């Protein structure tokens, strides 16, 4: 079907279509970018590897062509290979279409609930020290810290203002996460906007301040569309933009489980906790990027939701390294929030959660529209078995 459609087109249309076709585009694109002498061996390695040519060499020469066509999948492979060579002259004179898929997946890191209360392992000073050092070591030049200024005066978080200033001196930026972290569904629109204003009064004129508001609990009004629209209008009046997230792995739950386990005197396998933390965030990034590509037909610059946790202080550099190994580029929060998706205001039955989920829902994409480990019962089971080595109750 793919080939038939392609043959019906003009030569000019063929190249861009073949690049757009799912799977084939990536394969062909990679092949065309290579020096000629690498092309044959790469194409043989693709789709089944060397098993096929080795099997073919055992067949008498005159049977080889028909055998190769009969082998499962090989016919398709051969046609693709021939097509690749036929298209080479076209590729030489055609410029790469501007709508070519993004070669790199991009993501920015954002930390909520700053200043957060104590975690399981570190003092708040140690946590800030390690987080700044780990971000610097991982060459993350600009992350965003979403602040709840109402928690700065908490006696249990002494020195919070100075710690926040240190994030800014390290190159990171600050934005509004409300003054006291209210749930929008339990607050009137007027009180909610007043709470935002209180936080903005603290942020105003501060170095590193950005005009973004992150909804606490990612609650944007739920099913109450009147309230949702009142807050949307209120933010616009104030010159604030939604500091949405597109990738979420519920790191707050992992941190809460670590605090609980530590308080209960349980043995925590720190290597297993690191692996679970890193793996879950890379999987979440991949899951939401797939969802975004199906929704938007492109990969937007993503925004990852994290919190100011001991886990981030320990392993943010490991996570960044794992993301890069998976083909991700870490971009600034400024770059991510400049993506065209930032202007979208999806209209779905309940306004909450990630922007990726809402856009997919609006487009009618089937569930699941959230990464499976955001289901807390599943996340808790993984933590118990992998980090605490507990046997789950039957
Ligand atoms: Zn929060």
Present the secondary structure layout.
Elements: H1 2-7, H2 11-20, H3 24-32, H4 36-45, H5 51-57, H6 64-70, H7 74-93, E1 105-114, H8 124-137, E2 144-147, H9 160-169, E3 173-176, H10 189-203, E4 209-213, E5 219-222, H11 225-237, E6 241-242, E7 247-248, H12 251-263, H13 270-296, E8 302-307, H14 310-325, E9 328-330, H15 333-337, E10 351-352, H16 355-363, H17 376-387
Parallel strand pairs: 1-2, 1-8, 1-9, 2-3, 3-4, 4-6, 7-8
Antiparallel strand pairs: 5-10
Helix pairs in contact: 2-3, 3-7, 8-9, 8-14, 13-14, 13-16, 13-17
The structure holds zinc ion (ZN).
Zinc ion is lined by residues 112-113, 177, 181, 216.
Overall mean pLDDT: 82
Number of domains: 2
Instruction: Assign the CATH class of the largest domain.
Output: Alpha Beta
* Small molecules bound: zinc ion
CATH architectural label of the largest domain: Alpha-Beta Barrel
State the helix count: 17
Shape: globular
Strand content: 5-15%
H-E order: HHHHHHHEHEHEHEEHEEHHEHEHEHH
Number of E-state strands: 10
Largest sheet: 8 strands, parallel
* CATH fourth-tier homologous superfamily of the largest domain: Glycoside hydrolase/deacetylase
Quaternary state of this entry equals single chain
Q: Classify the helix fraction into a percent range.
A: 40-55%
CATH fold category name of the largest domain: TIM Barrel
Distance between the termini: 49 Å
Radius of gyration: 25 Å
Q: Uncertain runs with pLDDT below 50, 5 residues or more?
A: 1-100
Class of secondary structure makeup: alpha/beta
